[in-house]
C-alpha cells in the first residue's frame, strides 16, 4: 500500500465506551498497525446537551485500559465548528449548496404528504433554485447541499461490497442549521478530510450516512476515503445487543476482572476471523488483520466464551504480567484499597506472588482470583464460611488440627513438600484418608471449604501465620 494508512475512532461522549465502540476502535487500531499507519481519535461532541467531560474521560480511560493507543491529542469536533461553516460557505459560493427558508410547518406538511402517498419523507427542494430575495421576513435559513436528483451514488465498501443508493432517495441534506451550527454529516466529512483519514471503519448502521457523506465529498471535490462498514454485535439470542446481553462499558468489564489482552482477543473474534484460530496474541492479530476477513453477518456476544477465553489468558500469564494486571484492577473494585494497603508491605507482595501460580489455575477472572486469594490478607481470628464451619464442627476435627499443629510445629524446614510429608505421615499413622485430614486443615487455614492446594497454602502463609491459625481452631 503506497499511501500511509490513517484510521480514526470517533465516539460521541454521551456515555461509556460500550462494547461495540470498543470493537470499532480495535478494528481501526489493528488495521492501522497492520499497515504501519496510525489511528487518530476524534471526540464527536457537537451534541452539547448530551456530551459530557466525564464521558470523554471514560472513553479515554476505556481505550487506555484496552491498550489501544492513538496518535496525538484527541480532536474535539465542536472546537472545529468555524472550519465546518467555512466549507459550507465555499459550497454556497460554488453553487453546490443553498439557503433554504422552508418553515417548520412546511417541512411537516411535506413529510405528511409523502407518507400519505406512500413515499419516504423527503425535502422537496423548493428553495434549490429560488433567489434569497424571495425569502420571507424573519426566517433564519438552513444551508442545504444541492444534491443530484438523478442517477445513483455508489459506496464501494470493503465489507458490504458495492452498494447503490438512488439519488432521488437521498435529498438535499442540511449542512448548517438555522443557528449556524454545522450538522453531523458536514462535520464528519470536513474532519475526516482535514485529518487525512484514508480508511473509515465503523458500524454498518452508518451505511446510509456513507452515501450522504459521499455526496458532500464530491461537492467539495475531495477524495472519498476507503470505507468498511462492520456488522453490529447481537446478543446470544440474535436480538440487538442490550445491557442484559453485555452491552456494558469497558469499565464494567475491567471491574468484572477481565484481562485487557483477553478482551482484545475476544473482540477481534466478534466479526473477524483467521481460519479456525480462536486464540491469538496481539502481535498475531496485527499481522493477520485485514478488512476482507470481516464477515457480513452480525456477530453474537457470548459471556461464557469470553469467560473461558479469559481463564485461558490467566492460566497462560506469567507472574509479573498477572501481578501488573491485578494491581491495575484493584483500584477499580470496591474492596480494592484495603488489599492495596496490605500489598504495600514487600513481604505481603512476595506472598501473593508465591500464591499466584496456584490461584490462577482455579480462576477465570481477576474477581475470582482475588476472592480465592482472600485467605492471604484475612486477619485472625478468621471469618469461617458455612462449609468450613461444618468441617470444623465434625467429630474429631479439632483433635486432627491440634495433632497436625504439633507435627507441623516440629518441622525443621517449612515448604509445600515438607508439610505434605508431615500431614501424609500423620494420616497414615491414624489410618485416615489424606482428604479427611486435609479438609479440616483447609478450613482452619483459610476459613473456607475450598481453596488452592492446601500444601501451597501452608507454604505461602509461612510457618508463623499457619501455626497461629491452626492454634486458633484447635483451641476452638
Automatic annotation (TrEMBL):
It is an enzyme of class 6 (ligase). It comes from the Bacteria. ATP binds at residue 243. Its main location: cytoplasm. Keywords: Aminoacyl-tRNA synthetase, ATP-binding, Cytoplasm, Ligase, Nucleotide-binding, Protein biosynthesis. Residues 112-133 have a biased composition (Basic and acidic residues). GO terms for molecular function: ATP binding; glutamate-tRNA ligase activity; tRNA binding; zinc ion binding. Belongs to the class-I aminoacyl-tRNA synthetase family. Glutamate--tRNA ligase type 1 subfamily. This is Glutamate--tRNA ligase. It comes from Stappia taiwanensis.
